[in-house]
Write a structure and sequence with these properties.
Number of helices: 13
Number of strands: 20
Bound molecules: ligand DWN
Strand order of the largest sheet: 9-8-7-10-11-14-13
CATH superfamily of the largest domain: Vaccinia Virus protein VP39
Helix content: 25-40%
Structural class: alpha/beta
Strand content: 15-25%
CATH class of the largest domain: Alpha Beta
CATH architecture of the largest domain: 3-Layer(aba) Sandwich
CATH topology of the largest domain: Rossmann fold
Largest sheet: 7 strands, mixed
Length: 408
């Protein structure tokens, strides 16, 4: 349930269980849209919305209070294309090959991906002769997937849409579950669309890693929810699906890969993580106490470090016009006073300004050309891949998370 405040909604009940028993974990104040990069000459003023994180004491789901209209979040200019990370594409290729083998997928199978983006994942199934179907509401990435020869429906996935779609052997959903305001409807749609012996393979950022790494920059309006295994177990059970396997992954700062089926199976990996979460107290509000103070300390330390380097006469730029980068810069108040510009491989972001701060996004080639003294890794989750590719850059890197520091 929600109530409308100006141009966004504020939830009045938990997104998963419907209870009205939430406590505030963190408030980041009025923040810009994390993927809302803008042309320098954009006419309309930049939109900001409150960003407030709550913990539901009834089902332990962590969630934001605000619903920003989906067409503002994932509209014509949505700039995120998954294929700009080679390591991420390889991660998904390996996952696809494992699923093709373990599920004996072939010409009579169907793999449907929710939020297929530019086809970074489905293309690996198609290359092995497995029929695929992509669903994605963002026009740019959907067009890129079609250009790759994939069948894509350019719309938001809902339970109603699921009723129109063919039943699938595998339903994929990487980093999409957090993006949907109607969680229970979305998961009900997965159950509806799955064949009786099918499997839903879903990846989501893991709340445990977010707290342990103080990765508050992965909190933004696109991400309505922040998942624990215990909250996911309840969510899938409510839709008649059994969480039979969960794997922890290093991707995107720390994620979970879920395997949900209509038939209950042995689930030692799930039970082990549920036990760990209980031991950590993730199903209680006290686990999140002090997180806000840790966020403020990280922001303070980042500004102090960058200010010291700048005071020593250093030139500092940033790498990664990432959604998380926009949140970090705006929460810490870091802008042109400390950074000169941001670089990124994604050509769709070049020439635009980072959300909320007047920092221009440029091609990564300028690092070798201009040799700034320091590069702040806003896309810290891709640090190994980024550093390995920048062989012609001879300065030093600063990582902001889990604590701001200059890499040796
Ligand atoms: O949930 C989401 C996550 C999965 O991806 C989306 N809603 C939005 C997006 O968040 P993000 O932008 O923080 O994700 P990334 O993948 O951490 O963004 C990395 C940025 O860095 C992209 O703009 C691409 C860029 N990049 C680059 O310039 N060179 C990435 C790599 C790996 C590189 O080598």
């Amino acid at each position: 349930m929600t109530t409308t405040v100006n141009t966004h909604e504020v939830i009045t009940a938990c997104r998963a269980c419907g209870a009205d028993d939430r406590v505030e974990v963190l408030s980041l104040g009025d923040m810009p849209l994390a993927d809302g990069l803008r042309a320098p000459d954009a006419a309309e003023p930049e939109r900001r919305f409150p960003l407030t994180v709550d913990f539901c004491r009834a089902c332990s789901l962590v969630q934001i209070q605000e619903n920003v209209p989906a067409d503002l979040l994932f509209g014509e200019d949505y700039p995120y294309y998954s294929s700009f990370s080679d390591a991420w594409v390889e991660h998904c290729r390996e996952n696809a090959l494992e699923l093709i083998d373990t599920r004996s997928l072939g010409a009579n199978s169907l793999v449907t991906e929710l939020a297929c983006n530019d086809g970074y994942f489905l293309r690996h199934f198609a290359e092995h002769g497995v029929p695929v179907l992509g669903i994605d509401p963002a026009p740019g990435p959907a067009a890129a997937a079609r250009a790759a020869g994939l069948d894509v429906r350019e719309e938001f996935f809902t339970d109603a849409l699921a009723a129109e779609l063919p039943r699938a052997d595998v339903v994929l959903g990487n980093n999409v579950l957090a993006h949907v305001p109607d969680l229970s409807g979305f998961v009900a749609g997965i159950a509806r669309m799955l064949k009786d012996d099918g499997v839903a393979m879903i990846e989501v950022p893991y709340m445990r890693d977010l707290v342990e790494k103080c990765a508050f920059d992965t909190i933004y309006h696109e991400h309505h929810c922040y998942f624990s295994v215990s909250a996911l177990d309840r969510l899938f059970a409510a839709a008649g699906l059994f969480l039979n396997e969960v794997r922890r992954l290093p991707t995107h700062g720390g994620s979970l890969r879920l395997y949900a089926e209509k038939r209950q199976g042995p689930r030692p990996t799930v039970d082990r993580l549920l036990d760990e979460e209980r031991e950590l107290g993730m199903d209680r509000a006290a686990y999140y106490e002090g997180f806000g103070e840790r966020v403020r300390d990280l922001c303070r330390d980042l500004v102090a470090l960058l200010s010291r380097l700048k005071g020593e006469g250093a030139r500092i730029v940033a790498y990664g016009a990432a959604a998380k980068g926009a949140m970090l810069l705006n929460a810490a108040g870091v802008g042109p006073d400390l950074l000169e510009f941001v670089v990124d491989r994604n050509v769709h972001k070049h020439g635009l300004l980072m959300p909320g701060v007047e920092l221009l996004v440029r091609d990564t080639v300028v690092l070798a050309e201009e040799q700034p003294d320091y590069v702040l890794l806003l896309a810290w989750n891709h640090a190994p891949e980024i550093i390995a590719q920048q062989t012609e850059y001879h300065g030093r890197y600063v990582v902001p998370v889990p604590r701001p520091e200059v890499l040796a």
